[in-house]
């Protein structure tokens, strides 16, 4: 059983390459995006268009309500089931996305971990409130540098969990990950990574942010508020949405918000590269996923992989 994965930083054309490979090799796409799982969270996540989804079946998109907390463990379970179903129907599963934690949860598995400790979490929340969220990241860097390199410095939720695991078990989160079972055990996984020079990536990110605002991402968030989705909803904590929520709460104007989203996307892209460089066996392609050259190189590489006995 074989699985292709298309991974890498934001705005590199992963979706376009995934669709091209699916059309070439009778495949179906399984999304690997921690925000695209949420219904009504559309514009800021650049979900595949309705036309693309009619052209190639997509899985793990629009599977959770915006008010839910959809975990990496849940994703691994659901994605593993979708992948095995695709294979059973004689098609090639193609994993597409840039959420490194979801990718690792699926490919390597997640350990059950200690139960949440409310008292400890309150303590860590107080540290963040008094000293800033970055203080949690500096703490994690001392005790679990691998996790610290993968978790964004302002991602308080994941920083708290990583520190909670360390403080409760005496072992870093990374050590626990090494003793897990994958939801797709038995699959030969071949990841293809896309990367672009940072100046070009920034140009693409800036254009995408402008398009998101012109398409109405602010109105999208306002509609969610109107139907009762709270600003604290996990679905609104990701890039684009978090900044738009802050703007609507009066933190800054639209121009400053657009600039901030571009900066945060570039920081995120850097961390995605750090994450995926720690993953084994990625075949890196230098170029945008929608270009003919990259698609041709990827198709030739996949053909060789599929023809191999491994």
CATH superfamily of the largest domain: P-loop containing nucleotide triphosphate hydrolases
Number of helices: 14
Q: What Rg is obtained from the alpha carbons, in whole angstroms?
A: 19 Å
Mean pLDDT, to the nearest integer, reads 94
Helix share bin: 40-55%
- Output the helix-strand order: EHEHEHEHHHHHHEHHHHEH
CATH class descriptor of the largest domain: Alpha Beta
| Shape annotation | globular
Which regions are unreliable across 5 or more consecutive residues at pLDDT < 50?
Answer: none
Count of individual beta strands: 6
Give the count of structural domains: 2
Distance between the termini: 9 Å
**Sheet bearing the most strands, described?**
6 strands, parallel
Structural overview:
The protein has 310 residues and is an alpha/beta fold. The protein has 2 domains: 2-110 and 180-307, Rossmann fold (3-Layer(aba) Sandwich); 118-177, Orthogonal Bundle (Histone, subunit A), CATH 1.10.20. It has 14 helices and 6 strands. It has a 6-stranded parallel beta sheet, sandwiched between helices. Helix 5 (118-131) crosses helix 6 and helix 10 crosses helix 13. The protein is globular.
Task: Characterize this entry briefly.
This protein is of the alpha/beta class. The chain has 14 helices and six strands.
Topology:
Blueprint: E1 2-7, H1 14-24, E2 27-31, H2 50-55, E3 58-59, H3 72-88, E4 92-96, H4 100-107, H5 118-131, H6 133-143, H7 145-150, H8 156-169, H9 173-177, E5 188-195, H10 198-215, H11 217-226, H12 241-248, H13 254-277, E6 283-286, H14 292-307
Parallel strand pairs: 1-4, 1-5, 2-3, 2-4, 5-6
Helix pairs in contact: 1-14, 3-4, 5-6, 5-8, 6-8, 10-13, 11-12
